[in-house]
Design a protein that fits this description.
The chain is mainly beta and 147 residues long. The protein is built from one helix and eight strands, in the order H-E-E-E-E-E-E-E-E. It is 12% helix and 42% strand.
Length: 147
């Protein structure tokens, strides 16, 4: 048993050191996605609720693109491991549409924070007959904008 003690000590230290090096992903801050859109997520409250703004780089409307508000929530709980799931809604200020995003905040192998998201965009249509074309779906990858 005496010979096993150094081995166990090294094993415990190695496992403990690994858990200390795990970087947590934080949603707050300014992000840019793969299409060039920018969003800023403000500080969140203790329940994970946050607000912010979104400036899209793309639009299907001919209206002037304007900064739009976003409201969301991050999953909070006793088992949170540092790479949280979240969801937010953008109420577009320049069109009759709204988008909901859901995703997860990751820290990649290089230590960079990445938001992987999927979204549904719902646009207003004139009648139920046009409902088939009112919803779009897509994905975006956001990286932290260095200020």
């Amino acid at each position: 048993m005496v010979q096993a003690t150094p081995f166990l000590l090294v094993l415990v230290l190695a496992l403990g050191a690994h858990s200390l090096s795990v970087k947590k992903c934080s949603l707050t801050g300014t992000w840019v996605n793969d299409l060039g859109s920018n969003m800023t997520i403000s500080e969140m409250n203790a329940k994970g609720v946050f607000d912010g703004s979104y400036h899209t780089a793309v639009s299907a409307t001919s209206n002037e693109i304007k900064l739009s508000p976003l409201h969301g929530v991050m999953q909070k709980g006793p088992n949170q491991k540092g790479q949280p799931t979240f969801g937010f809604t953008v109420n577009w200020s320049f069109s009759e549409s709204i988008t909901v995003f859901t995703g997860q905040c990751f820290v990649d192998d290089d230590g960079k924070e990445v938001l992987k998201t999927m979204w549904l965009l719902r646009s207003r249509v004139e009648s139920i007959k046009n409902d088939w074309k009112a919803t779009r779906v897509g994905i975006n990858v956001f990286t932290r904008l260095q200020e």
